[in-house]
Fold this sequence. Notes:
- The protein is 30% helix and 17% strand.
- By secondary structure, it is an alpha+beta fold.
- The strands form five sheets. It has an eight-stranded antiparallel beta sheet with strand order 3-2-1-16-15-14-13-12, with helices on both faces. Strands 8-7-17 form a three-stranded mixed beta sheet, with no helix packed on it. The chain has a two-stranded antiparallel sheet with strand order 4-9.
- Helix 2 runs antiparallel to helix 14 and helix 3 packs parallel to helix 8.
Amino acid sequence: xxxxxxxxxxxxxxxxxxxxxxxxxxxxxxxxxxxxxxxxxxxxxxxxxxxxxxxxxxxxxxxxxxxxxxxxxxxxxxxxxxxxxxxxxxxxxxxxxxxxxxxxxxxxxxxxxxxxxxxxxxxxxxxxxxxxxxxxxxxxxxxxxxxxxxxxxxxxxxxxxxxxxxxxxxxxxxxxxxxxxxxxxxxxxxxxxxxxxxxxxxxxxxxxxxxxxxxxxxxxxxxxxxxxxxxxxxxxxxxxxxxxxxxxxxxxxxxxxxxxxxxxxxxxxxxxxxxxxxxxxxxxxxxxxxxxxxxxxxxxxxxxxxxxxxxxxxxxxxxxxxxxxxxxxxxxxxxxxxxxxxxxxxxxxxxxxxxxxxxxxxxxxxxxxxxxxxxxxxxxxxxxxxxxxxxxxxxxxxxxxxxxxxxxxxxxxxxxx
Length: 417
């Protein structure tokens, strides 16, 4: 491993510091169950290390092929699926959403009341497709727990694993107000689940089947899906919830997990399970301009468009966000089509590069792609919620500090490391 790390421009000794940090700060203290770090650069896997446990109660060690709940790391895959339809001319970013979902023609903006007594006003402008892609739609998540609108989402089980189907979710949302006029604020929401619905409606193929046949199978992501594949049940990690005293408790037992069976809702916003190796295939496709090993999903210019900041007036997330919870709240970070985008590393107070794009999942998983450095990082664990510890920020510091070689490299390496 050391030779591959050095060939990729990393200091082996500094990567050992990363592993030691995770072990002493998080594993030995019982803060997280396990930690898997996968670093890819210059066509090589520079570092692939699994530490700790997949299942603490049973003493099952974490392995490179452990299956994780990736939650909101599902969103970039759904966005790619939708952008494939954009490339086919089926829809455009400035298409009004009510042209695609007529039931939403009269959506209003919240003015007062509760589920039975909502008062609304007419939005100043309609919701566009781009608003779904960048989370400026006015939709929300029930777990935000900050308004009467997200309270209604919870009561109606909108976006939940065994809640309404995609079609039922769309009908329920037709009867609820928006949090704000689309395009005027940013709020983490079920927008990407709506994109999944639209993928099915526009393509004529159920969303889950579309994702499998058009993205997962072509990229060789054999262990990724909306439930654990038959025969892989013993590879599913346990999931834990943080406790008030800094420990963790079992949240989802892998032996009894709902992820062992197909869900009612194929959630494009957070429903997938998968492995780090599978997700690396997806990230390499993105870094390589939409193509990997002869399989092209998107055009190069489409990837370039997706990884630009699309927030109104070029603002960053803190300037527009109304979310109590999201997977990124840093200054100097914008949002593209499916990803957060680093605009100014100095304002994030973290090492990195302008144009880096990233996201994470509820169970503290994360990934980031740095085109300037030809770098992909994937981190997997299973602790809810993802804002319990500052581990993502710490990982960036430790990984970038281990990157010591800046010699030129092939920008679009197609090696199948």
